Amino acid sequence: MAKFQLDTEFVRQLAQILQESNLGEIELADGDKHIRVARQSVTVAAAPLAAAPAAAPAAAPAAAPAAAPAGDPGKHPGAVTSPMVGTAYLAPEPGKPNFVTVGDKVSAGQTLLIIEAMKTFNPIKAPKAGTVTQILVANAHPVEFGEPLMIVE
């Protein structure tokens, strides 16, 4: 297998195209070579960019996930699942209270938590009004696409 040679000038040109065209990312593939250049988004809804502790496991006091039910929580009709791969944060920033806790009543569209993916903080909103009965993820832990995050009944 040949060693991949990175053309830094080409990467700079792609980054310049991103800047000039206001695109979020460019992805190219040529055979088995693949390159993706993305720029950081500054659009943040309900979460300042400072909410990304790189390696700080300093979770808020109530950040421990609730025990999962005996069945598959992903099949629960009130399951809120992750729409992406990323890191889940239960609070808007370190040291602040969680968006919601078990027992909280939420309204449809209310932010439940945020998921950081590629340096962008994405609010995960309640799909319906109800009560948070379980929080299935811990603060600052990775989540996978389709993973159940919370139960709202």
N- to C-terminal distance: 53 Å
Indicate the mean pLDDT: 75
Would you tell me the structural class of the helices and strands? mainly beta
Largest sheet: 4 strands, antiparallel
Number of strands: 10
**Helix fraction by DSSP (H/I, runs of at least 4):** under 10%
Strand percentage, roughly? 25-35%
Over all CA atoms, what is the radius of gyration?
19 Å
Instruction: Write the element-wise H/E pattern from the N-terminal end onward.
Output: HEEEEEEEEEE
Coarse morphology: elongated
List the helices and strands and how they pair.
Elements: H1 8-21, E1 25-30, E2 33-38, E3 79-81, E4 86-89, E5 105-106, E6 111-117, E7 120-125, E8 130-135, E9 141-143, E10 148-152
Describe the structure.
The model is unreliable at about 40-70 (pLDDT under 50). It is built from one helix and ten strands; from the N terminus they run αββββββββββ. The relative contact order is 0.20. Strand 6 (about 110-115) and strand 7 form a beta hairpin. A four-stranded antiparallel sheet has the order 3-10-8-5, with no helix packed on it. The protein has a four-stranded antiparallel sheet with strand order 7-6-4-9, with no helix packed on it. A two-stranded antiparallel sheet has the order 1-2. With about 150 residues, the chain is mainly β. The longest helix is centred in the first third of the chain and has 14 residues, at about 10-20.
